C-alpha cells in the first residue's frame, strides 16, 4: 500500500474549493480584489497585447513590402547603369567614326582631283604624224 501511495499523484486542489486552512483567508482576498475586476484587467491587457501583436505584424508586412520595392528599384538601377555604360561606349566611338568619314571624304576629293588632272582637255591631243622620210626608211 505504501507503493500505491507513492505512485499516486497528490490530489489536485481546485481553485474554487479552498482547503479548510485557507477557507478563512480566501474570502478576505476576494473582498479586497474581486475576481471580476482582475479578470476584466486581464482581458484588457490581453486585448492590448493582441493589438500590439497585430501592429507588429502589420509593420513586418509593410517592412517586407518596402524591402521588395527597394530590391526592385535596385534591379532597375542595375539596368540603368548598364545602359549608361553602353551609352558611354557609343559616345566614345563617335570621334573614330568622324575620323573615318573625314578620311573617306578626303579620298573621294583626291580621286575627283586626280581624274580632273589626268583627263585631257578637249582640243589638245598629241598626234604622231609619220613623216615621209621615215616611211621610206622603213621600206
TrEMBL record:
Its BP terms in the Gene Ontology are: attachment of spindle microtubules to kinetochore; cell division; mitotic cell cycle
Which superkingdom, per the lineage? Eukaryota
What InterPro entries is this protein classified in?
DASH_Dad2
What GO cellular component term, any one, is given?
mitotic spindle pole body
Task: State where the protein is found.
Answer: Chromosome, Centromere, Kinetochore; Cytoplasm, Cytoskeleton, Spindle; Nucleus
Main localization category: nucleus
Which keywords does this chain's UniProt record carry?
Answer: Cell cycle, Cell division, Centromere, Chromosome, Chromosome partition, Cytoplasm, Cytoskeleton, Kinetochore, Microtubule, Mitosis, Nucleus
The UniProt entry's sequence similarity note says: Belongs to the DASH complex DAD2 family.
Q: What is this protein called?
A: DASH complex subunit DAD2
Source organism (scientific name): Lentinus brumalis
Amino acid at each position: 500500500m505504501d507503493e500505491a501511495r507513492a505512485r499516486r499523484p497528490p490530489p489536485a486542489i481546485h481553485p474554487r474549493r479552498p482547503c479548510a486552512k485557507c477557507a478563512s483567508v480566501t474570502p478576505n482576498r476576494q473582498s479586497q480584489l474581486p475576481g471580476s475586476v482582475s479578470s476584466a484587467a486581464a482581458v484588457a491587457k490581453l486585448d492590448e497585447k493582441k493589438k500590439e501583436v497585430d501592429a507588429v505584424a502589420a509593420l513586418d508586412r509593410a517592412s517586407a513590402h518596402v524591402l521588395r520595392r527597394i530590391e526592385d528599384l535596385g534591379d532597375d538601377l542595375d539596368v540603368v547603369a548598364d545602359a549608361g555604360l553602353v551609352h558611354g561606349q557609343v559616345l566614345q566611338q563617335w570621334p573614330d567614326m568622324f575620323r573615318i568619314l573625314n578620311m573617306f571624304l578626303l579620298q573621294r576629293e583626291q580621286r575627283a582631283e586626280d581624274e580632273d588632272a589626268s583627263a585631257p582637255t578637249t582640243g589638245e591631243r598629241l598626234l604622231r604624224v609619220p613623216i615621209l622620210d621615215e616611211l621610206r626608211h622603213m621600206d
